[in-house]
Request: fold
Amino acid sequence: MERKQPILELQHISKSFAGTRALEDVSLEVRPGEILCLLGDNGAGKSTLIKVMSGYHEPTAGTIRLEGDEIAFASPREARQRGIATVHQDVGSIPLMSVGRNFFLGAEPTKGVGPFRWFDEAKANEIALEQIARFGITRISDGNQLVGTMSGGERQVLAIGRAMYFGAKVLILDEPTSALGVKEASVVLRFMRQARAEGVAIVFITHNARHAMAVGDAFAVLIHGKVAARFSRGEKTREEVLNLMAGGEQMSELEEDLENIH
Amino acid sequence: MRGILDYLNSAARISRRGLGVAMLTGALALGAVPFVDMHARADDDGPIIVVSGPLSWPFFAAVKQGFDDAAEIFDVDFQYVAVTDTANMTSDYPRLLQQAISRNPRMLLVGEFFPDGMDPLIKEATAAGIPVLIHNSGQTLWEQNGSIGFIGEDPYQMGFKAGQIHAEGGVKHGLCFNQVPGNPTVEARCTGYVDAMKEAGLETTYQTIGTGDATNPQAMLQAIKGTLQANNTIDGVYTLNAVPAMSALRAVQEVGRAGEVMIGTADLSNEVLEAIKAGDIAFAMDQQPYLQGFLSIQTAKQYLDYGLHPIGAVTTGPLVIDKSNVDKTLEVNKEFSGVRGAS
Amino acid sequence: MTSLLRRPELGAFAAFILTYVFFAIATHGAGFVSINGTAGWLNLAAELGIVAIPVGMLMISGEFDLSIGSTVGAASMVVAIATSFYGMPIWPAIGLALLIGGLVGLANGMAVVRTNLPSFIVTLATNFIVIGATMGFSRLIANVTSSSIVSSDTAHAVFAARWGQANISILWWLGAAIVGGWVLSKTTFGNWVYATGGNMQAARGAGVPVERVKIILFIATGVAAAFVGVLQGVQWNSGNSTYGQGYVFQAPIVAVIGGVLLGGGYGSVAGIFLGTALFGVISTGIFYTGWNTDWIQLFLGVLLALAVLANNYVRRFALMARR
Reply:
């Protein structure tokens, strides 16, 4: 399979906060139609990396390239406008608002003219339902239904589908499966495969090696703000990945310890 | 032009006396004034301290006007102490009084609004030789606590007088409308009213409203209207403030009993006075708050300089205002706004 | 049918019907259900309702405004002093009062957005500041804290006209409800109001200018409060700095009775409207019963608790998935 040119590239990125290094010399790239899994334990620097990629933080050193051009995002809004969408695990949707209203929040379709423009709810509902149905959520049949009535996986799909509908080229998914049950997680993973098939570049941040192995094309393991390992699909076994994430310690030993605690 | 001159004039007055007072009350409120001496005593060079009501109330603003005018005429300096936040007056007033006593005043002019907390302190002050003159409230206490006199009115007597006027006017069933239930001074007016009506063998109804509606004329209108509808024998209404008086007038008109229900009120406003003039409201009762302030300063001056003072209580109210004297009152109220305690 | 059951105003609607029927029976013969009796509770509800609608919308966006009480009184005093003391014609005076209301709202909005302090505290402070300033300036300028208003025929026609015993304020209330309802449920801005109160981070992330949304709502609330002050002032021919103090808590209460979620993100103008109507019926109807009026607040409190419980049930129902 021929690999496309990277759409988003991080080159030698470092980020410090008041003297503390959160990221050190991180180089990564993600290509259209690929899922890059960013693995790491809590505190490994994943959130800082997300914030650098989505324009919340400016890196202390290093360069970011978007479609080959060097770029510095002035704001998250600019990153979004350039097609980089971040979907956070917890703050994606508004439970007491309807599916249609959530889907079009901030980009509402309108009817009418001038001060008498109004929100075209029927159109919003129709498109929202159409989009989530495309990704396999057919249980929701009424665009007026509150998002709070949807399951966690369905909400993730709604949020990601929304980002794609509004032209995201790079999707940064922050722990989209970690709060979900097995079934729900598989809904989201299936959806990610589908998005990949449509040519979107996905950065999948997770600490769940199983989920990563299920969909990932390229992998990067982050430890203490540094990239500890990079490899492609099929190059390492799940055990090896787990050991890498644990920072070189034998995961099997850790698992033994855990058993002894019981 | 006149407006601007008045403005400058009153601004000057405030800055001359008001500023010191504001600073004083601010300091007292923060508890920043130190106790200079543990034992209270009268000090010939000490200040004359007035502990009186909150100036945000039109009534006490008129009292203050009386203090100010008399102070200017008699060339007396005084310091006015009052709460600015009316939420905890029951505990704030004894504290203010305590702090005033500890400053060794030459004389104390006190409104004894909350006797439970204030009376022991007044006894302490008089025992230590500080001359105390009570104004506004404390009619039944001043003789026991060693004060030299009392200038003011008795809310019970005021209500009683209103009941008598209603009874004489042919009212058979009187309504006393209390817009601030829980205020003992105001409630005493209704008690007096009910007692006077009972003495004449007549029927009464006592009505209160929710505490949130005390300043909403529309809510008071609808409340009185409802009561008049439910009791069609009511032919007299006594209100305790000028705002509900106007609500009562409109309620009577809306239930179609204009001219059949005799309306009287405590306190007054231009609107009430105009209604008295037109014959729609029978009477208003003026406590003459200005006199409470003015006579207090005058008495203080004459007592301190010559040892003279009135014997017994000086009652400043109620002055009943009806058709016979409304014109003069209205004229004064328009020309010297604020002197009557409402406008 | 289920979509009707999920509407936020359902609880208030049921409570309104039950309460109205209750009072219609309990006040039998006293004229509560007559045209004049109906005009009475509508007049009361209308003045509260005009300010409760923007207050409720502000609550949906996640903020409170407790300064409305003082703004009502301040507006009436501005009109009174401008017309009777400075001899200003009434219309410019009304314009000035509305402008001041808008400025109070702007100040609240800026303070809340800039400091991120809870609006409950910020506007409580504003409430004291505004009534203090009103009394202080009124005393300084005219040596009064309440004063007559010199009105005109046109001002009277707009703010105090009556048909029988029904005040024109009822029409203003309906107008405010129609405009508010349209904005909240039919416009992009309305969507932003819900989103701002529902999840501010998510709304900001989606590009909603949450600060602007809040400031606009604070301004609308200030103007509405000033409008009610003008309305009461012209109607009673008198300004009074204490007008409106009762609204400080009555307005949020009727919004909550009407199904607005105290923490924001949920509610409707129809609900606020019904909550206000319910409040009008209760606080007027009880007097037509001739019962001892000392009980009125107990009664109000129990009904409030019941309405809030009903709303909680409705909201849970709306969040029940059709699984």
The two ends of chain A are 47 Å apart (CA to CA). Residues 14 and 24 of chain A are 4 Å apart (CA to CA). DSSP finds nine helices and twelve strands in chain A.
